Amino acid sequence: MMIRVILSIILLCVVTVETDAQSVSTDSMKNDTIVKKDDTNYVARPKEKWLLRAMVNQTGNYIHAKGTVNGVWSKYDLHTRKNTTIGLEVNYCDLAVSLSLNPAKMRGDYDDYEFDFEYHGNRISFDINYQRATSLTGDLKLGDMDHLDEEGLRMNIVNVTVYYSFNHRRFSFPAALFQNYYQRRSAGSWLAGASFQGGSIKTTDALIERSPKAPDVHLTFANFAIGGGYGYNLVLGRHSQWLLHLSAMPNFVVYKHNTLEARSAAERVQGKDYQEKRDHGLCFNMIFNERASVVYHFTPRFNAGASFMMSNSIYDNGDVTFNQNKYHARAFVGVRL
Questions:
Q1: Does an H or E element contain 119, and which?
Q2: Residue 185: its pLDDT value, please?
Q3: In terms of Cα–Cα distance, which of 88, 99, 96, 92 is closest to 120?
Q4: Among positive and negative, which fits the CA dihedral 132, 134, 137, 143?
Q5: N or C: at which end does the chain have fewer Cβ atoms within 10 angstroms?
């Protein structure tokens, strides 16, 4: 119980840490003094140490899976309920803490759980997302069922992404995503990185009670991928007011451990074990990570913008297929103090 209480408190907070920082003094976006390690013609830190941002966030997850085990064929085209939060982020130098509230959860209309932790430096960035959901709904081919209502499946998923920017002296992820830096001139960078996706989806007791003839299905998956890509920050305007960011990194799965287990309603009544199919080892599967953002600086102290991050996975070898499309959209208004 204590763990659940702690996790519920953490759910309200999204913690962002950025430690690839250097000291700089600046009077405007045009005039900056020396920044250690960073090329000040391209990347600079503001003199203001405090940054407040009001934010609206929305996340969602789309799941596609299929497979046949022991004559039981199942196919899922499902999505979770959208998680929309409003929040306030307080950023001091390189440590940011944001409090986010979900109005639907406060009304008791949203029971899923989601936790995000993000780290963004000019050199290294990573983000971790954990989601536990029973709100999966959509088209479902499972026994005599063709549609799934909420509380029919329980999903637990972890997504981890790590980036390394080779041109980190001139290209800044924080400038595009968290405004801890100014991107003064356009610059791009080749990226190297890795991704991990793991979790499980299984039928719930509530589904069996509603549909006694429905089979039991349990999908577990763990996929590790490495890859590379490219990111670019486009700066526009006389005083670098506009910043447009776009990056993409395809990753090739180098190890996977996916298992689909199923048993029919008759086998469940007889107490028989699950039959399974495995998709383990190496195979040509991929995970794609994309990010985009736009930032507008009204003045050196006031800014606004939006960002979008998405992770797409493709695992398909004919026996076990699982595709996930996870997104996170954010809009914000910020002021430096």
A1: strand 113-120
A2: 92
A3: 96
A4: positive
A5: N
